[in-house]
Amino acid sequence: MAPSSKANQKAALDTGAWLFNVVTSVGIIMVNKALMATYGFSFATTLTGLHFATTTIMTAILKWLGYIQGSHLPLQELIKFVLFANLSIVGMNVSLMWNSVGFYQIAKLCMIPVSCFLEVLFDKIRYSRDTKLSIVVVLIGVAVCTVTDVSVNSRGLIAAAIAVWSTSLQQYYVHFLQRKYSLGSFNLLGHTAPAQAASLLILGPFLDYWMTNKRVDKFDYNVTAVFFIILSCTIAVGTNLSQFICIGRFTAVSFQVLGHMKTILVLVLGFIFFGKEGLNLHVVLGMILAVVGMIWYGSSSSKPGGKERRSYSMSSDKSQKHGVLSDSRELDEKV
């Protein structure tokens, strides 16, 4: 196959993976907003546990049908990943509970510089000046859109720090495990989803009671609420899978930068479906600035020297595993 056709195919697959993530992520936010705001199902941690339980069932069915081949992930790596992932989920929920919305958004923006730091520290990544500036533009644009009142307290600051670092480590670890153990997205989900489902379904009801003072078993499970719970779990399968596919194809930093496009889309859809309160000139300008920054980031990071490794030891290891990686990602590319 000619280099140009390979590049076009990769670009098409990257775009498809990203659109898959955007559609499922925005969809689940809209469904969860309706579920929690309209029907009062405020048990976020338990709901996440149900998401991973549904994902576990999906991976088990695909494995039974032969679409997922057997693979190995050391127990210690699995435990570390589940620890980071669950700390991320709990930390984000507690951060939202203890902090103002403005400080919560600032904490989320801090994930990009933390992810950059992890890539520089562990992967010896070097960013060009344009790539760094484009990231700053994205951060400013999203901050203008989302950050309103900012109030900080000591326990909220600790919760935000745990949320930021655990989320960044979890996303970095997705890329690291896929690369190190030649795991496709389905394979990695097959290892991690059952462990996350079990731990979150056990701890979730207690954490949700602590945060909301409501018991999940006392909720009024009417037909409409159950329908939205099932819909949320169904979309979550795609969200979990698309996150692993995108981080595997890109990096944690690129995933975070492009991820703010979802923030912009959620804001726009929120204004369309839930009223235009809060929509003003500086929000629109912030959206435009963020989108410009994302386009600039995509252009600058893809240029020679825009984002490259200083050490090529991993590259040689990666080339040795190329055949295995190609096989393990075959199903990802079909999705």
Automatic annotation (TrEMBL):
Query: Any stretches that span the bilayer, and where are they?
Result: 12-31, 43-66, 78-96, 133-150, 156-174, 186-207, 219-238, 250-273, 279-299
Subcellular location as annotated: Membrane
The segment annotated Disordered runs over: 301-335
Alphabetized InterPro entries for the sequence: Sugar_P_trans_dom (IPR004853), TPT_transporter (IPR050186)
A Pfam family found in this protein is TPT
User: Boundaries of each Sugar phosphate transporter domain copy?
Assistant: 23-297
The protein, known as:
UDP-rhamnose/UDP-galactose transporter 6 isoform X1
- GO CC annotation: membrane
Q: Which UniProt keywords apply?
A: Membrane, Transmembrane, Transmembrane helix
Say which species the protein is native to.
Elaeis guineensis var. tenera
Q: How does it sit in the membrane?
A: Multi-pass membrane protein
